[in-house]
Amino acid sequence: MRLLSVFLIAVTCSIGNLRAEVLDVSSRGETTRLLVEQGSEPWVTVVLFTGGKGVLDISKSGAIGGGENNFLVRTREIFQNKGAITAVIDVPTDRRKKLHGFRGTKKHAKDIGAVIKHLRAKYGLPVWLVGTSRGTNSVANSGARHKWAKPDGIVLTATMLEANDNSDYVLEYNLAKITVPVLIAHHRHDKCWATPPGRVGELENALINAKPVKVLWYEEKGSTQGKACKPRHYHGLIDIEEKVVADIMAWIKSPAP
Fold it and tell me: d(Cα 200, Cα 206) in Å, to the nearest integer?
């Protein structure tokens, strides 16, 4: 399939064994930019989907223009230290201002599929999708739609479980079509209205064909800052980042119910 090509590869170097590069992957005549970073001896590639509008404004040199406080953006080095190539994904060129109303579409899934195919071919490693907050919509949508570019598994943290004005709502997707392993990580004290812990059971039950499915619950209280839906609150798994990422990576290596 002539579904993707890479127009830009900007390689940058930093301290130690870390290697970073910026990739622009083509799909639908548009491009989606990735900041790809890796340490030594990686064994999996994880594509990290931020929440909110999804806009990171990644520059050609790899600088991130916004969203650095997001749980997955701020923990990417922890993922790398545990054996992951991390690919932080930005918005496509036709959605530069926000992904609201786009995350659940076929077009978005097609863009993600192009990214999966490119990363799998480039690095020769399994490709997992990891999303947090509104990023879980992108991940679940891709998992539910793809046959030609299916991820090896998906991880949902602080999943969007309530309907809202921006049309991003994981439980409205056809989750029965997801057949890959699914890990759900959620904080019991998450007070964000859109990610209520009380609905995680519905999500788990809807994933009837995912093999396997696991729910990880966290209860630790930390030094929260800002509003309940912000990344420095329980919604963003504050102060337990190392533990959560370690749990995610351990499960990715050996998925089990």
Answer: 10
Could you report the per-residue pLDDT of 159-172, keeping only the tens digit for each?
Answer: 999 988 776 789 99
Give CA–CA dist 203/210, Å, rounded: 11
Q: Are 245 and 201 in contact (CB under 8 A)?
A: no
Tens digits of per-residue pLDDT, 18-35? 689 999 999 999 999 999
Helices in 71-169 by DSSP H: which ranges? 71-74, 76-81, 106-123, 135-145
d(CA 165, CA 91): 20
Tokens of 182: 């699914």
Give Cβ neighbours of residue 180 (< 8 Å, ≥ 6 apart): 143, 150, 151, 152, 153, 154, 210, 211
- CA 43 – CA 41 distance, rounded (Å): 7
Alpha helices in the chain (DSSP H): 71-74, 76-81, 106-123, 135-145, 200-206, 241-253
Q: Could you tell me which of 222, 245, 66 has the C-alpha nearest to residue 155?
A: 245
DSSP letter (8 states) at residue 46: E
CA distances from 99 to 89, 116, 144 (A): 12, 19, 18
**DSSP H helices in 7-75:** 71-74
Global pTM reads: 0.93
